[in-house]
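Notes to self after the call with IL:
- keep both proteins in one doc
- input above output, always
- annotate only the second one for now

Protein 1:
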Amino acid sequence: MKKRAITSKEIEKILKNNPEIRIKGMKPVKSCKIPANTRGMNGLESRYTEHLEKLKLAGEIKHFGFETYKLRLANNTTYTPDFFVIRNDDTLEFHETKGFMRPQAAVKLKTTAELFPHHIFRLVKQEKKTMRWIITVIPPHTEGE
């Protein structure tokens, strides 16, 4: 018998049909579905997907997606932001999640923000102790935007 990964729809069905099942560290959220496309994400990206899904359900953002855009910076150089977020005012933002940022990644993110000043770029980190999201706007934009 060939083994395969369980899909998010199968997980949703199992949890719906077996309310006694509890996942360690997970609190139930009303009407929050498991995002369909979490394959290929690391743990931080998966947690941020859940956070964005909650914002969407609360009406705080219109839409979001994972690794959808590829921005061309120069010949043979591109940048793929982790997430795009469409705010309620139709502003398109790009969010980059990082547990640890190497100097080259920081330079690439700042360069991208300068080359595409009509979009807002945000760096997303998560505090390990409190699990609080720390979101920083990358210049040339400022925190008020």
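Protein 2 (the one to annotate):
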Amino acid sequence: MFDYILAPLDGSKLSQSVIPYSVQIAKALHVPIVLLHVIESLPVYAQEGEQALDTAPERYGQEYRQAIDSTLTSGRAEHIRYLDLIIGREKAIAQRYLSLFANPIEAQNVKVESVVEIGKPAQEILRFAGQRRNGLIALSTHGRSGLVRLAMGSVADRLAHASSVPVLLIRPKEDEDEGKAIGSIVAPLDGSALSEGIMPAVQQLAMSLHIPVHLVRSVPISSEIWAGGETHSYVPAYLTSEVQTKVHADALRYLERMKATLEAEKIIADLSVLVGPADSRIVDYASEADDALIIMASHGRTGFNRWFLGSIAEKVIRSSGRPVLLVRPREE
């Protein structure tokens, strides 16, 4: 499922928190890591009275060609050489920066490829992942580089919503020099086929990392149960109790079936039915699990309690200190 790990780095210490996780997964899967640094913009300083050339990627090609034509005809080709010098210098700095991480990673018998691009970070990450399929993007949910002024928080948010490939989001802590190893997987399911789209990733990582899987499903409390597609201001206590018991039993049977599929692959698995708001219950459960990685579908829907897993996933990302792997299942 995963043929490589794409780890974007922006120059900040916080963005580097993805490296330990990337190395652990890459070693287990025997796949390379691609370190990507995006040079967000290259200011070109003009002489007094001239307009500076904006080398932002959406205009770079056209303006660069126009600059070549105008400067060559005006006898000022030195400006083009200066522009090339700036681009070359920035790329050289970025390559040296990436080599600081590539060398130690390669010493751990993991292949590394270093890539430098010029453009908008989110666009370049998505473009790379789109051209080179079967990857896993791993990045920090926030971080800022003084070098390129890259706010990784907004980039992570963009990728979480737009990426068609799985995205591993790490929320780093200031006092942590290195990320912890992944020790287990928490796999929330809502009963829909879309939510079950995470299972190939769950199986691959559990088998490769030799870690257990905790299957969980959240069910609403009695007062939130939907009956016949409509809510009722008053439902007799005996009825809510009966419905709650049935919902809980159905969830258990469902998780038992999913557990059996994992155990058929020799994967250690257990299950839990969580009662209450899905996002907070998942966050609480994962906080108690051993070095858990949460794997969730980026969207999904259950017909019974209208749990939109996409919105739940977003809340879990913002609230949990655990790494979250978002998988966008294929539409049926």
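Annotation: The domain at 1-178 is CATH 3.40.50.620 (Rossmann fold). Residues 78-106 form the longest helix (29 residues).
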